[in-house]
Specification:
175 residues; 2 domains; 40% helix; 18% strand
Amino acid sequence: MIKDKIIEILDRLPEEEQQHVLDYAVLIERRYQFNWNLFGKGVEITDVFEEAEKIIALWEYRFSSHLSEETKKSIYYDQFKWHIFSYEKVHSLTKDEARSAFDEIRKDELYLMYEGRPFITRLSNAKDVVAVDFDSEQDVYIFDTSCTWTYVHTHESYCGPYFTSISMIPNEGEG
């Protein structure tokens, strides 16, 4: 019945608009597959709205507060926070080393922060989550609830992924 309604709507739309519908359908399918994979691992997924600003601010404090506003501006931090890694302003592991570090670190409850989204996603019972689970995601920052480490998967195939922990970041200056 739902399919029939969708087909009726599609039949009334010009081909250009049908392409937009297809693009959205692909995004919906990708999100469904992503969530289904996590559900299969026993992961509970919850969107967090009320505390999101506080959690985002904590991530920024932990991983970029040692950088000056001038440095952040010069690396276009406001466009992509992960530029702190691609411009090598924050030490991180990259590529296979980053993936391995993420796979090996103890995980229970995680946060997902997507670039430009005003909410956070919480993953509970995430002990079996691995880097490959995020290969279909773009500009996602995964971190523990204490914000002691972060794994970042970008939309650029030649940038990242990145992994760092607060022990790898200097306390003062822009080391």
